[in-house]
Amino acid sequence: MVEEQKNEKEIKTTDKAVLPKADAAQKAPTDATVTEKKVQKPVENIELIVRVADNDLDGKATVIRALTKIRGIGLRMAKNIAIVFEKETGASGNEKLGELKEEHVKKLEQIVLKPTDFNIPVWSLNRQNDFTTGENTHRIMGELEFGLRTDLQRLGEIKSYRGLRHTWKLPVRGQRNKSTHRNKGTTVGVTKKDNKK
After folding, report:
1. Within a domain: 39
2. pTM for this one?
3. Can you give the pLDDT at residue 84?
């Protein structure tokens, strides 16, 4: 039994056998590898601000992300525009906006301003079956705000329920208003009186 214990101790010590140390050349990086890591891709001429549809967009962002900064263009519409843009120019929608050529930026602006001319699906437009013209259009920036204002004005003039609720600045879509949606800026509730001693 004593011999078995000695054998077990010998086996345990052999399990912890010292592995050969790595050569110093393997551990220390060579000068060539250090310089390769430090060398970065040269920075190309990137325009930091690109003007598209009277908006200054970030040139470091991808085309899709940059287009979402335009009022009236969400992520879904930006992706649809990027797909059409890629078909028209061959430039990917994931490229940085500042790296695009001027011709590509002009083409992108045309697509943003008149998406219906480039067969963007009707379901992604924000002004389908317009009340006055009956056309499917996509409005951005000032046109979008003007259209919203005229729609609310029209609803108020015909005295529809929605129009009246908008003019009274109350919730339009059936929300409760017992405790919320009171006139802006007024404090509601119990106020404590100052105790005079």
Report:
1. no
2. 0.64
3. 93
CATH number of residue 87's parent domain: 1.10.8.50
Average pLDDT over residues 41-49: 72
Mean pLDDT of the chain: 80
End-to-end distance of the chain based on CA atoms, in angstroms? 93
3-state DSSP call for residue 180?
Answer: coil
Task: Note the Cα 28 to chain centre separation in Å.
Answer: 44
The answer to whether residue 33 is domain-embedded is no
Pair (81, 144) in one structural domain? no
Same domain, 112 and 144: no
| Residue 13 scores a pLDDT above 90 | no
Residue, of 32 and 56, whose pLDDT is higher:
56
Q: Is residue 67 part of a domain?
A: yes
* CA 27 – CA 194 distance, rounded (Å): 76
Domain encompassing residue 149 = 140-176
**Helix segments in the chain, DSSP class H:** 2-15, 24-27, 31-38, 63-67, 75-89, 102-113, 141-157, 161-167
CA 8/CA 11 separation, integer angstroms: 5
